[in-house]
Structures are given as structure tokens and as C-alpha cells.
Design brief:
CATH class of the largest domain: Mainly Beta
Order of helices and strands: HEEEEEHEEEEEEEEEE
Number of helices: 2
CATH architecture of the largest domain: Beta Barrel
Strand content: over 45%
Strand order of the largest sheet: 11-10-9-14-15-12-13
Radius of gyration: 17 Å
Number of domains: 2
Helix content: under 10%
Number of strands: 15
Amino acid sequence: MGLLLAFSGAAGAQMVVHAVSGTVKDINASAKTMELTVDSGDTNQFKFPSDAKVSLDFDRTLQSDSTQASSFNKVGDYVIVYYYGYDNDRTVVAVKDLGAGPFAKIEGKVISYDKHDRTMTVKDDAGKTASFTVSDHVVVDTGLSVESGKGFDPHKGYYVRVTYAMNGGKNTAVFVRSRE
């Protein structure tokens, strides 16, 4: 019984990493904060991690494809911020720099997903559809955690918000917020 409690206590201490995309508005080194302007135009503030050791539930593929928060300094770039915490107490752990863009977005329901071709089609509330290539490197926030596109398998009817770029005449998803 004591061994079971020890394992459950260790698992409970692990912080789940989530993601949000937007434009870096400010990095304040002295205050140890980063401000991000998100799609709605709102500004979200994240604090930089303290020196305390924190155990993270963070997809290794995404972690290796990002910059540690303390090393990131590109104000004005469009990024994906990986963080843990809630509301006004969020800590940025890493940043994936997507550059200046341009990026487009669509929010709606998945109407099809082809596992073989790795393409997804989404229909918004106004009836507009868009199709995307979904690579292994796409960042997916499922609401429960953040993961790479390797295991992403959205079913018809999933509600998603897709941030995408045009590459070679095709839409390529770079960030997906997925909710069933």
C-alpha cells in the first residue's frame, strides 16, 4: 500500500504541458515574463520558470523541436508557447518559433481525415471548408495535454481550431487545438 501511495504522489507532481499560439508582444527579462497576443487580440502573460525542479508531461518530439523559454528572445515572431498552469499563473517552458508568417486560421468540425495521406478537411460554421496536410511535427493541444502530430487521429465531428501556412500551394497545419 505504501508503495502505491509513493507512485501516485510522484505522478500527481508531474505538470501537464499545454500550448497556445500567438505573436510575442514583449519579453521582460527583469520581471521574468513573456507577453503573447493571441488570435482574439487579448494579451496573455506567462512567467519564466523558477530554478525549482519541475517534472513535466511534455512530448519529447515537441520538446526537441523547440527553444527553452529562457533562451528565446524574438519579439514580434509568431510562436507556439508551451506552458503549464492555469489562468493568470502560467509558466512558459519552451517556445516553437514559427517566424513572421503569414498564417491563417479556421475553426470548425473535422469532416474527413485521411490517415494514409495525412490530410484533414475542416468545415467552419459558415460552411467554408479547408484541407490541410498534417505532418508529424504539427503541434496538437488536445485539452488534456500537448502532443506531436504522429498520433493525431481526429474523428469526424471533432471540433478543432487550425493554424496553418501555405507551403508549395498546399495548406500545412502548424498548430491544432482539438476538442471532441
